[in-house]
Amino acid sequence: ETDTDLVVHMDIAGMSAEDFTVEFNEGILTISGERTARREGKRHYHAMEVQVGPFERRFRVPVQVDPASIRANYEHGFLEVRLVKQAPRASGAQSVKVT
Predict the structure, then answer these.
(1) CA 63 to CA 1: how far, in whole Å?
(2) What is the DSSP letter of 5?
(3) Are 1 and 7 within 8 A, CB to CB?
């Protein structure tokens, strides 16, 4: 978190930007997709560092952000999502003029 932004970094190696989605709805940022196994002939794996299959991560955003300002950049296996903070809304009693 910076003074003006919330920044989310996520390691999504071995995928392309089309293989996952980034959505923001009602204060929740959701990153989801599916990593498929590479099919290079018949192989038997003894250990695998990268998990395959569907994934989803949800983050409740702790402050008000401007939904139109959300930017996502995926480069070299790393996803960066930036959300610009909005000024806090005035709270407490407010007078309303009746016409």
Answers:
(1) 11
(2) E
(3) yes
Buried b (16+ CB within 10 A) or exposed e, 23-62: ebeeeebebebebeeeeeeeeeeeeeeeeeeeeeeebebe
Residue/partner pairs of 16-21 with CB below 8 Å, 24 or more apart: 17/74, 20/79
Each residue's pLDDT expressed in tens, for the chain with a length of 99 residues: 999 999 999 988 888 888 889 999 999 999 999 888 766 666 676 766 667 789 999 999 999 998 888 999 999 889 999 999 987 765 566 666 664
> What are the backbone dihedrals phi and psi of residue 8, each rounded to the nearest 5 degrees, phi first?
-115, 125
Task: State in Å, rounded, how far the first CA of the chain is from the last one.
Answer: 43
